[in-house]
Write a structure and sequence with these properties.
heterodimer, A: Rossmann fold, 3 domains, 19% strand, B: mainly alpha, Ammonium transporter fold
């Protein structure tokens, strides 16, 4: 019997944050499975860390779920075939950006036959969970692409007491996690209690933004499930203030704990998992099907009917456009991910990756944006969730005063994009923050 | 590679507010008091305001044209400067002097220091002070509303003679835009609701003056409703460029402005202290901005680690 329960309120609220237009146009649209394209190009590096090592060669027959590349270190992830067909080779291909990346090119036979060798992956211990995540090729599906098994294998002397399930989905447009909540609540329930038990977690907090009442209702089933005998699984309703879903922000909201600079969530006793990652991990444990397809939201000004598509990983964007019947000539910009942190796509050869959660396809921007001088309104400072002063960093950048970057704490920046978003003078503040971080010697905050 | 797309750094969406939009809001907020000034002081006031606004725009236009810089009059900041300056002048100001004020504001105080965002004092305020010290006799000639009688004293010179109601609604002599506290407060509330300004500076500024007046045995209401305090506290002290960005900084700034205003009014020989108070606080704003009022998220913990 479901208990009557109300969602929790956040323990703490971050400084700043931006109110964004939500544009969740595709929220109530059922996921549609996209048929396999003729050819997929599966990149060997779809995660943070060492690229995977290919173990297939030209002419090999592969199926959906066949491993095609092995992880090459602790921080790395294996890659699996997303279609059934014939390997055409391991090729260097320019997908997105200027540099060529190694990909496995597979010609699809169109039948999407599942690898007969796939079998369930039984788990008994915490180590098994991490091993399952690794074998699944699971990476942070929220967009970060950090190999999931790494965060599931904390060092022996760190005590993890809280599992935070991130269903905040704070970026505008994207509804892929939302659809996961709506379509697979049973999987989420099973995954939650399995992880809670095996990882010996004291408290599970499922976090959703308050702009998704239906998802809150659905996920309440997780928190009020009969398996939750000691009432340790809670649902938390977060304000829809961007960037609520950012790892440090969600930990602070859910537990009041601050992750210090350069530290990981495990250092404050937390594991944060994206809701889709969690469900995928459970699916792998039960069926043995690794991460081969990804639900992406397709929206933007060039898209007449927004959709949630289940797309085989490695599908070129040109194939997605063709499937949706979008004329490539009217497209001016494509963003992979959300409009705040998403990567711009420079060519239609770019492919859908594990961490892709949306494709925003834009027509020519109708409004011209004029940049003016900084008027020192202080909005960037007020909005920054990390409590930084982007406008002053920009001043230092223009003066070439790289020494000031340290005193201005640019290495704390999480590159959420809020400062550029809010700036009335339309200055490229986030871009400058990124450059300043590189000057300071890499980002230690991610 | 075929079919190259346009790629720009994230974020890919922007807030609808623009610099020009903010400036337009300020103009809008100033207009009730400006219109009221024109009604009670007549055509002279209209001409003064027109002169300052048009000269301000023209100065910026010509500066950019002559120095071959990108044209910036579209950001509407020159209109704000011109309007504010005009509202801070007596309706009896000779038009050439009003024009000199606008040229000084735009060219000397704003553009010579780098244009919008780089001026170290509020341009309109700086220009008013330049005019005050350059042409003192013209700048202190006021007239009673409606009638055309020239009098040299504003209610500030003889506070006891004017009722609070008169002061609040503004039917008394003074600069064009400073007389009606009521309309200025309405404009200020509009800016606060539109989130253009933060109430900290005006509230702490006016609050400090009221508090100090009460302590020294004066009528606080008359003190805050007279002279240029409302106009200065709501519209000039809140100038983004020359006031601190952090909230604690704004509070220090507001209290400082209030204290200096009170000291000048109470003990100084000048009739009005608001302009100088804001000017002095403008100058120390860069120092206030250097005070690290807040630490980045997750900062303390790192310190204890080390």
């Amino acid at each position: 019997m479901a208990r009557k329960e109300k969602p929790l309120k956040p323990i703490r609220r971050i400084h700043g944050g931006a109110k964004l237009p939500h544009h969740k146009n595709s929220a109530e649209i059922q996921t549609e499975v996209m048929p396999a394209p003729d050819t997929v190009y599966i990149p060997l590096s779809q995660h943070i860390g060492a690229p995977a090592n290919p173990i297939v060669k030209k002419g090999d027959q592969v199926f959906v779920g066949t491993i095609i590349a092995e992880a090459t270190g602790f921080v790395s992830a294996p890659v699996h075939s997303s279609v059934s067909g014939t390997v055409k080779g391991v090729v260097d291909k320019v997908l997105n950006g200027a540099a060529a990346v190694k990909c496995v090119e597979i010609e699809s036979d169109g039948e999407m036959k599942i690898d007969p060798d796939l079998k369930a992956f039984p788990v008994n211990t915490a180590e098994d969970i991490a091993a399952a995540a690794k074998a699944c090729g699971l990476v942070g599906l929220g967009g970060a692409g950090f190999p999931a098994h790494v965060k599931l294998s904390p060092s022996k002397d760190t005590k993890i007491d809280t599992l935070i399930i991130n269903a905040a989905e704070c970026e505008p447009y994207i509804t892929s996690d939302y659809r996961e909540c709506m379509e697979n609540v049973d999987g989420i329930i099973a995954a939650t209690y399995l992880l809670k038990e095996k990882l010996n977690i004291e408290k599970v907090i499922i976090c959703v933004e308050n702009n998704k009442p239906k998802a809150i209702e659905k996920l309440m089933e997780v928190a009020t499930n009969k398996q939750d005998v000691d009432d340790t699984v809670k649902l938390m309703k977060l304000p829809s203030t961007y960037p609520q879903g950012a790892e440090k922000v969600i930990i602070y909201s859910a537990t009041g704990r601050k992750v210090p600079l350069g530290k990981l969530p495990s250092d404050v006793g937390c594991i944060v998992m994206n809701v889709t990652s969690l469900a995928k991990l459970y699916d792998f444990i039960v069926t043995g099907m690794p991460l081969t397809a990804k639900r992406i939201t397709v929206d933007g000004s060039a898209v007449d009917t927004p959709k949630n598509l289940m797309v085989p990983i490695g599908t070129p964007i040109s194939a997605v456009l063709k499937y949706l019947g979008i004329d490539a000539d009217i497209v001016e910009r494509i963003i992979m991910g959300g409009p705040m942190m998403g990567q711009p796509v420079s060519s239609l050869d770019a492919v859908v990756e594990k961490r892709t959660n949306a494709l925003l396809i834009m027509k020519k921007d109708e409004r011209a944006r004029t940049t003016t001088a900084c008027i020192r309104c202080g909005r960037c400072q007020k909005t920054c969730p990390m409590n930084l002063t982007p406008a002053r960093v920009e001043t230092a950048y223009k003066k070439g005063d790289t020494a000031a970057y340290k005193t201005l704490n640019v290495n704390y920046c999480i590159e959420c994009g809020s400062c550029s978003f809010i700036c009335p003078a339309k200055r490229p503040l986030t871009e400058v923050m990124r450059i300043a971080k590189i000057h300071l010697g890499g980002s230690k905050n991610e | 590679m075929s079919n190259l797309l346009k790629a720009a750094s994230s974020p890919h969406i922007r807030h609808e507010d623009t610099t020009a939009g903010i400036m337009l809001d300020v103009v809008l907020a100033l207009s009730p008091a400006a219109v009221y000034g024109c009604v009670i002081f007549g055509l002279r006031a209209v001409f003064v305001l027109l002169t300052t606004v048009i000269t301000a725009i023209a100065s910026e236009f010509l500066w950019n044209l002559i120095l071959k810089k990108p044209q910036t009059i579209g950001d509407i900041s020159a209109v704000v400067t011109g309007l504010l300056l005009g509202m801070n002048l007596s309706p009896y100001t000779p038009l050439p002097i009003a024009a000199i004020g606008s040229v000084a504001a735009i060219i000397v105080i704003k553009q010579m220091f780098g244009g919008l965002g780089y001026n170290f004092v509020n341009p309109a305020l700086g220009a008013r002070i330049i005019l005050l010290v350059s042409f003192p006799s013209f700048m202190t000639k006021f007239s009673e509303p409606i009638s055309d009688v020239i009098s040299s004293a504003t209610p500030l010179a003889d506070l006891k003679a004017t009722s609070i109601k008169t002061l609040f609604f503004g039917m008394h002599s003074g600069c064009i835009g400073e007389t009606s506290a009521f309309l200025l407060i309405i404009g200020g509330l509009y800016l606060i609701v539109r989130k253009v300004i933060n109430p900290i500076i005006p509230v702490s500024f006016i609050g400090t003056v009221a508090l100090l007046a009460t302590v020294s045995g004066e009528n606080p209401l008359k003190y805050i409703l007279s002279g240029g305090l409302m106009l200065g506290a709501i519209f000039m002290a809140t100038d983004y460029v020359t006031s601190p960005t952090a909230n604690w900084g704004k509070l220090i700034f507001g209290i400082g402005c209030g204290a200096i205003t009170f000291v000048i009014r109470r003990f100084g020989s000048l009739p009005e202290g608001v302009s100088y108070a804001i000017l002095l606080m403008n100058i120390i704003t860069p120092l206030i901005n250097r005070i690290p009022f807040s630490r980045p998220f997750g900062y303390k913990e790192v310190k204890t680690d080390e």
